[in-house]
Every structure is written in C-alpha cells, then in structure tokens.
Amino acid sequence: MLAEITSPTAVATVQPQGCTNFKLRQLMRRVAQHYDTEMARCGLKTTQYSLLSHVLKLGPIRPGDLAAEMKMDASTLTRNLRPLVDAGWVTLEAGADARSRLVHITDAGRDKRAEAQRHWKAAQLALNETLGVGRVNALHALVDDSLALLATTQGAGDDE
Length: 160
Description:
Layout: H1 2-6, H2 8-13, H3 20-39, H4 46-58, H5 63-69, H6 74-87, E1 90-94, E2 101-105, H7 107-131, H8 133-154
Antiparallel strand pairs: 1-2
Helix pairs in contact: 3-7, 4-6, 4-7, 5-6, 7-8
C-alpha cells in the first residue's frame, strides 16, 4: 500500500481530490495535538521544548541567529522565549557589545529539557505504533522531498 501512495506512477494517474492545504492542516493539527498532550505532562508546549533543544544545541546564541536557525520570525521568537526566561530555563545576557544579547540555557533549563525529552520520545513512539514505522518513514521522506521541491520552485523561505 505504501508503494501505491508514494509511486510516481500512481500519482500521475490519479488526480488529487480536495485541498492539499486543508488536508495537511488537518494532519498537522492531529499530530500537534498528540505531541501537545504528552508534553503537557511536563508542563511544556512543543514549541517550548523545541526552543530549549535549540538553545541547548546552539547556545549561547544571539536571538536573531536562533530565529534564523529555527526558521521563525524574530518577533515570534521573542514572544516564545519570554515564558522560558520567566521560568528560569533560559537567560538573555549581554553579548559582545552593549547592543547585543545572547540566549543561554540554565541548569534548570537543561533539567526541564531532559524531562521533556522523555515525554517527546513517548509521543514519538506512540505515533510510530499508531501509524506504523513504515508509514512514518514514508511520511518523513515525502515531506522532505516535497520541501526540497518547493524550495527550488518557490524559494527557501519558511514561515515558522
């Protein structure tokens, strides 16, 4: 069945029905709901877990560079960082000069990220079990291929 879904021949002979945007949004909402439910058990949103993970991996880092790495608008990043700063999981400290700042993860942030990683893994394993590992791998490949094709035809800009 997966061969039929991803086969170029099958795609060429059967025209899509419905709105691709709507179908992808439906899937994204359902998947996000799945992850959000699990992440709520440790008191984080998936966006907060992603931010903590990126700061851990890339930090200390300038907010603008972090936004670029995460393919997100700088104002969105600032808004999403605020609860992490307020919770004491990240800090904004002075950078190389008076105008620059650096985002750092704190020890409490490292601990929260480690706790959240266990919940993220549980969500991923449950999704793999529900959909099947083969379908998840095929979905990843299809998304990656589609993103690459769209980047070459529409430019590489993302809106997240």
